[in-house]
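User: Could you check the structure of this?
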Amino acid sequence: MTDKNTLRLIDANLNRLREGIRVVEDIFRYVYNDKETSSKLKSLRHLARLENYIELLETRDIKNDVLRDSIKSEQNRSDLYSILIANFKRAQESSRVIEEFCKLESIKDSETFKYIRYELYNLEIVLTKITSNSK
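Assistant: Sure, the predicted structure tokens are below.
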């Protein structure tokens, strides 16, 4: 059984992963009107789940999060592209953390988050094509 601190780490990264994907998904949906990419992102967001939701939720401790406050670079975005990149990276990094810590309990779950991470890497290429075509 995974300890409370590890579950807390996984919970935080699951939230970060889904939030990052949702920001990117909504931009592809509402700004770029890209049904294919936004649907793929939606599928990835729904795939980013673990069975032990209640156990994860019970470890959440927002009040005592030592890095809860944002740093300056997290508060500044210069344009739509910077929002997209920041959220792609946020989601990719979070999926990597979850992938590593799931190895303690489930190789299957670990492989799911590895899949999500690589799909996000591929979707960044779509972003690059869209932004280069709009210039």
